[in-house]
Design a protein that fits this description.
Blueprint: E1 3-6, H1 11-15, E2 21-24, E3 37-41, E4 55-68, H2 74-79, H3 87-97, E5 111-119
Parallel strand pairs: 1-3
Antiparallel strand pairs: 2-5, 3-4, 4-5
């Protein structure tokens, strides 16, 4: 059974199959490698009692690497499922959501784990 990854902030982009990249804290997903499969879900934690996780898609990992936020550009924002966000806005958004202070000098040098995938064939009941 594939591991599950929450995509709560980009649900529509996963459903549309336009999101093909995510960035996570570099201390997470360390064992993930190309060829691994993941089940993308709406939300994994904080569900009310009796609620079930909603599966959005099944994916296969294409690339995993640790890089700095310097590598984020507008094309990467589209791959992240955030086409209306500029690279600068994304870097600030990502840094703040991962515990870094906004406007801190060196924002470009913050490391992140970039995870890229391809979607597997849709199956009945797939988001």
């Amino acid at each position: 059974m594939p591991r599950r990854m929450s995509c709560s902030m980009t649900i529509d982009a996963v459903r549309d199959r336009t999101k093909t990249v995510t960035r996570r804290h570099p201390n997470t997903w360390q064992a993930l490698k190309p060829g691994d499969r993941l089940t993308l879900i709406e939300k994994g934690m904080g569900l009310p009692k009796g609620s079930r996780q909603v599966v959005l898609a099944e994916v296969e990992i294409v690339d995993v690497r640790v890089e700095t936020l310097r590598h984020v550009n507008d094309a990467e924002c589209r791959r992240e499922g955030l086409p209306l966000m500029s690279a600068e806005e994304f870097r600030e958004f990502w840094a703040e959501s991962h515990g870094y202070r906004s406007g801190v000098a060196g924002l470009w040098n913050i490391p992140c784990r970039r995870i890229e995938w391809r979607y597997l064939v849709r199956t009945e009941g797939d988001g």
